[in-house]
Amino acid sequence: MALAALDQLTYAYPGATTPALRDVSLAVDGGLNVVAGRSGGGKSTLLRVFNGLVPHFHGGRISGRASVAGFDVIATATRLLARDVGFVFQDPELQAVYATVDREVAFGLENAAVPAAEIPPRVDEALHAAGAAHLRGRALRTLSGGERQRVAVASALVSRPQLLVLDEPTSQLDDEGSALVLDAVRRLAAEGRTVIMSEHRLEQVIGAATQLIEVDGGRVVAQDPRAWRRPLPAERIAPYTGPRNEAWSVSGLSVGFGGCRVLEDVDARGCGGEVVALIGPNGGGKTTLLRVIGGLLTPAEGRVTRSAGRIAYLPQNPAALLHRPTVRDEVRFTLDRAGDRSESPDAILAQLGLTGCASRYPRDLSSGERQRAAAAAVLPGAPALVLLDEPTRGMDTDARDALIQVIAMLRDRGAAVVLATHDHALRAAVADRVLRVAARSVTEAAE
Predict the structure, then answer these.
(1) Other beta carbons less than 10 A from residue 220's beta carbon
(2) Pick from 326, 291, 313, 443: nearest CA to 381
(3) DSSP classification of residue 175
(4) Which helix (H) or strand (E) holds 97?
(5) 119-129 vs 101-111: helix crossing angle, rounded to 10
(6) Close Cβ partners of 404 (under 8 Å, ≥ 6 residues apart)
(7) Whole-number Å distance between alpha carbons of 104 and 405
(8) Higher per-residue confidence, 259 vs 371
(9) pLDDT above 80 (res 259)
(10) Residue 138 CB partners (closer than 8 Å, separation 6+)
(11) What secondary structure letter does DSSP report for 161?
């Protein structure tokens, strides 16, 4: 009997007119099971069946059968399923309970009444497996998004679950962090553990997959991963031919938190009509530099200049921006603030493939859809300076390509664009220059 199995499962969220999952029959048993598909197609909903969040937390209507580790998911409380199912969400910010890394990773063991003497070595084991050993003792509030994601993975691994479920665990990680997490996943699968992982960057994991599970429009189809073919890379945008005047600069910049310098004696600048990509390790200072350029963070030392005009800032966590009743309302609010009555909210929604989501509540969207909604909410209204922090987080290939076209449009209008990203395809398609942010410094990097 398979460790996890769904039989003719159909599920709809409360108030939804169409099911999020439709007549799903699936068996998962051992190895690495990779879940793929477009944003909003039902991947996260499928994953949440395995730990009982669907239906016990979200409510709604469900029919058919689901079992995990011998338990009937529909009849078993989520707290009981959690003993055998480790889960990592797309948004690590939503998963934290304690304020420090050690306590956060230990929480699951404490909750399960594991003897106190066993907890420290188990925490060490999990932190090493997730590539987060160097974060021990840190406060969660001081971590970058990618560092928080590693801690979330460690928190799931620490209980040594029979089934490990990961919802896009590498979406914010640098290359080293991604490699460490994926090595841990492959090792668990090789040991006979069962791992289910959703991922958009399939080329990183498909070679180790035992099953590829495609989800689209709530329909689920399992297939041989050897049938997968790498998609064509995004085309590089055409060169900008307009004037380039300096739009922002930092000189002698130093920034620190709690007595620790993140950036020190940094000089950097960018022009209108130019896309500058920031690369570097998680926690290296990319977000800090973006916030300083945008005026959201005051440096300890140095000078910051920026040309006149509206600043559009997309943070790593899109939920921080989305508070209005509908996606269209979010865009309209930005246009009203910018005093732009000539641009329709529906224009950028169409460009980003969000026309069908225009009347939906933003926080009900999938992670990838929320990311696009946040981009749509900040980018209209002719911004002069565009700051994007991991803008393709949770996006599928089509959504990323749509964002590339929006970035090209803004650049061609003369906007200065600065983006922090671990997405090689995005960087290759749009970046005029690449700056490496690491070891408290910023240096020009060859692409």
Answers:
(1) 23
(2) 313
(3) H
(4) none
(5) 120
(6) 234, 237, 426, 429, 430
(7) 40
(8) 371
(9) no
(10) 100, 101, 147
(11) -
- For the cut 80, the answer to whether the pLDDT of residue 314 exceeds it is yes
Domains, the chain, ordered by start = 4-227 (3.40.50.300), 246-445 (3.40.50.300)
High-pLDDT (> 90) share of the chain, %? 70
Q: Are 289 and 266 in contact (CB under 8 A)?
A: yes
Residue whose pair of structure tokens reads 């590339």 in the numeric block: 404
DSSP letters of 228-274?
--PPPPPPPPPPP-S---EEEEEEEEEEEETTEEEEEEEEEEEETT-
Q: Which amino acid, 327? A: V
* Amino acid identity for residue 323 in this structure: H
**Residue-level pLDDT at 360:** 92
Question: Does the pLDDT of residue 171 top 80, yes or no?
Answer: no
Average pLDDT value for the chain: 91
> DSSP state, 141?
G
The alpha carbon dihedral of 240, 241, 242, 248 has a sign of positive
Determine the Cα–Cα distance for residues 352 and 375; give it in Å rounded to an integer.
Answer: 9
Residue 436's CB: how many other CB atoms inside 10 A? 18
- Cα–Cα distance for residue pair 426/396, rounded to 1 Å: 12
C-alpha torsion sign, points 110, 198, 420, 355: negative
DSSP letter for 145, please. Answer: H
Please state the rounded mean pLDDT for residues 34-47: 93
Q: For 105, what's the count of Cα atoms within 13 Å in the CB-facing half-sphere? A: 31
Q: Mean of the pLDDT values across residues 158-184? A: 83
The amino acid at 133? A
Q: How far apart are CA 228 and CA 308, in angstroms?
A: 48
Which phi and psi angles does 436 have, rounded to 5°? Answer: -95, 125
Residue 215, SS3 per DSSP: strand
The dihedral over CA atoms of 48, 52, 53, 55, expressed in degrees to the nearest 10, equals: 100
Residue 128 CA to residue 194 CA, distance in Å, equals 20
* Three-state SS annotation for 380-443: CCCCCEEEEECCCCCCCHHHHHHHHHHHHHHHHCCCEEEEECCCHHHHHHHCCEEEEEECCEEE
- For 7, 197, 208, 214, 217, the CA distances from 221, given in Å and listed in that order, are 13, 15, 19, 5, 11
C-alpha separations of 300 from 41, 143, 259 in Å:
45, 20, 11
Q: Is the pLDDT of residue 387 over 90?
A: yes
Instruction: Give the tens place of pLDDT for each residue, 191-201.
Output: 778 999 998 88
